[in-house]
Every structure is written in C-alpha cells, then in structure tokens.
Amino acid sequence: MFEIFRTVVMRDLVLALRRRADLMTVLFFFVIVVSLFPLAIGPEMSTLRMIAPGVVWVAALLASMLALERLFAADYADGTLEQMLLTPQPLALLVLGKIAAHWLVTGLPLVLISPLLGLQYGLSGETLLVLLFSLLLGTPALSLIGAIGAALTLGLRGGGVLVSLLVLPLTIPVLIFGSGSVEATASGMGGEGHLYLLGAILVMSLVLAPLAAATALRISNE
Amino acid sequence: MSSRLVNWFKFSSPSTFYPLAGKIGFWSMVVTVVLLAVGLYMSFFVAPTDYKQGEGYRIIYVHVPAAWMSMFLYVLMAGWAALGLVFNTRLSAMMASALAPTGASMAFIALWTGAFWGKPMWGAWWVWDARLTSELILLFLYLGFIALQSAIDDPRRADRACAVLAIVGVVNVPIIYYSVIWWNTLHQGATIQIRGESSMDPLMLTTLLIMTLAFWAYCIAVAMARVRSIILERERETTWVGEMVKEGRA
Fold this sequence. Notes:
The structure holds 2 protein chains of 2 kinds.
Chain A: H1 2-17, H2 20-41, H3 45-68, H4 70-77, H5 80-86, H6 91-120, H7 125-152, H8 159-167, H9 172-186, H10 192-220
Helix pairs in contact in A: 1-6, 2-3, 2-6, 3-6, 3-7, 3-9, 6-7, 6-10, 7-8, 7-9, 7-10, 9-10
Chain B: H1 2-10, H2 14-46, H3 60-87, H4 90-122, H5 130-151, H6 155-188, H7 202-234, H8 239-247
Helix pairs in contact in B: 2-7, 3-4, 3-5, 3-6, 3-7, 4-5, 4-6, 4-7, 5-6
C-alpha cells in the first residue's frame, strides 16, 4: 500500500521537476506579494515588524490557492485521473500522494524562503524560527484543505476563482493560529500553544481531507 | 412495520411532495404573517425599554432570530445534503439547495441589523468581535455553496459536489468558531460583551420567542416555495409535471 503512495509521489515529483518554471511562479508570487506591502505601507520598521506575521501568512495562503489549480488539472486533462479512479488501490491514498508531492514542490519552497522575507521585515531570530515552524505545519494543512476545493471544481469554468471562494473560508483557522504563533512569540507570550493547535489541524486534515477529496474526485469524474 | 416504511418514504418522491410542499408553504406563510404582526407590535410597543440600552435594543427582536436561523439552517442544509449523498434521493438535494439562499439571507440580515445595533451601542458599525467574525465567515460559506451550485451545469453533479462542500463546512464550523474566539481573546481581551446584561425580562423573552417562531415559519414558507420551483425546473420533462401544467394546477 505504501508502495503505491511512494510511486505517486515520485511520479508527480518527476513531472513537476521537468517543468521547473511553473514551480518558480508560485515562489515568486509569494516573494512579490510580501515585498509589495512595505512599498504600499511605508518603510517604517516598527510598523513592518508588527504586520510581518500577517503579511507573510496571507501571502502564503494566496500563493497556495494559486498553486491549487495545478493539483489535478493536468491528470484530468490527459485522462490519467480516470485511470487512477479505476485502480484497485484506495483512491484516498493516491490523492494523499498527489497532495504530498504538490506540497513538496509548491509549499516547501515557501517555507524555506520565509525566514529571508521575515528578515526584511526586521523579525528577530526566535520569531523567524517560529515563522518557519508555523509555515511548516500550516502549509501542508492548506494543501490538504485546498485539495478538496480543487477536486470539487475540476473542469468547471472559472475554476480558479471559485476554488478561492470555496477554500478561503475553510482555511481561516490555519491563518489565525499560524500568524498568531508568530505574533505571540514577537510579543513575548510564547507561540507554543498556537503551534500545537496548528499541529492538531494538520493531523485532522491529514486524516479527513484525502477522503473528502477522493469523494469529490469521483463526483467530478462521473 | 412495512406500511410505516412506505408512508415514511412516500413524500421522498418529488411528485408526491410537490402538493404537500404547497400546503406546508401556504400555512407557514399564514403563520408567518400572524406571528410577525403580533411579534412586531409587541417588540415595538409592548416590550419594556431596556434600562441600559434604551429603545435601540429593540432591533434584537430581528437580529437574534435571524442569527439563530442562519446557524441552524446551515446544519439543516448540510444534513439534507448528506442524506442526498448517502441515499441518492433527489428531493434531499433539492431541499439543501432550496435552503441555501434563505440561510445566506438570514446571515446577511443578522450582520446588517448587527451593524445597526452596534453603531448606537458600541459606537462602531463593525468590530472584529468573535461572533461578528464567525457570522461573516458563515455568510462566506453559504456564498461558496451557492457559487458552486451555479457553476456546475449538471444538477446531479452539482448536488453531490455541494453535499461534500457542506459536510466539510459543518466539520469546519466549530473549529472556525473557536479559533475566532481564541484569536479575539488572545488579541485584545473582550472589551465589548453582549452578554453583560442580567437575565431578561419575561415580556422581552416572550416577544423574542414569538419573533423566533415567526422567522421559523418564514424560512419554512420560503424554502417550500423555492423547493417547488426547483422541482418544477428539474422535473419539467416528466409526465406528472406535464399533466399538472395542462390542468393549470402548477
């Protein structure tokens, strides 16, 4: 059973790495959105330090929404997805593999570059570490929750905007606890509580989201 | 036993439910008009003035029922949608899609009247209070449901996709609610509390109860009217609709 999971992850990774430019767009989108805020608000360091957690987190949320469209679209277009639906292996596991690969190529780069962006906003060392950790826990949850929306809107007109409308309200807890952890650390309260809750959300979506996404895929491919 | 089962499932068919929905809808509308007349009169003239908030508090009689209905209708909608997904009954999904616009309008009314209440009481149209925020998110969830429904042309696929969305939403609603509460308290502490008052005057409570029942009846009436239109729209190819239209009963 884990063999099939591994196969799906490796396949999607290979496919993604053959089109590196696509991956870079998501990363650059994230960097550009974060860099726009100082230009709009002004270079006042104390203000920037205050809004940094929220800005980085909202940008990460938007970037992962942008990447969602790509999750199933290519497989849907060339018929691979239909073959996946026909395999005897549990579909939820295949979906989990696809989400894992998707996160590795779109989510993980955001996580890794986030301390650099935090540095631009004048965050201190410990806060940067918490920012990194919160994104490490939060972005997989975003990909998991988003996969449900991506599966539901597969092949619909205006799918991209619709996905955001469906998924964004559901990701609010991740946003709250993610940016909350950084903010709590910055103000000296300690962000552990937020990180635990973020971890709980991740575990719950890890269990439930692939099942819901698999059901949604079956509905979209009837 | 078997006869009871037959009776129970009799109205799960659109053709038998259609006339029943008409009757329920009509009588609910009658009840709505009566209760609203009584309830509005009581809320404006009979219920005592609040010792702290003055006359402005009277919007509670619209605000609170609307907020209750908006929350309850979401659960009800998800319940119908889940039934439709599990048992593959056409009518359950139609009920779910008939409830969605009513629920959204209730959430909107709750927010709107809340803003009217907030301005004189708190001095602001909007505060990022946990209740307000979660009600706003509830409105977004309704809008997502409606948007997904209208984006899919095939009604059967739309029903099933929306059912998944509604169920995911129901799982998420408590998480959203508590995360918003914790977010709010962690940020600034509760500076404004709606629950500051002592227990309610019995007359106020009665008025509120009547208004709540009026809102219930209204939601039932509107949902029934909408489900009848949906039935007609989706079953327009069937013979029973054709016969009904020919006889002029539609």
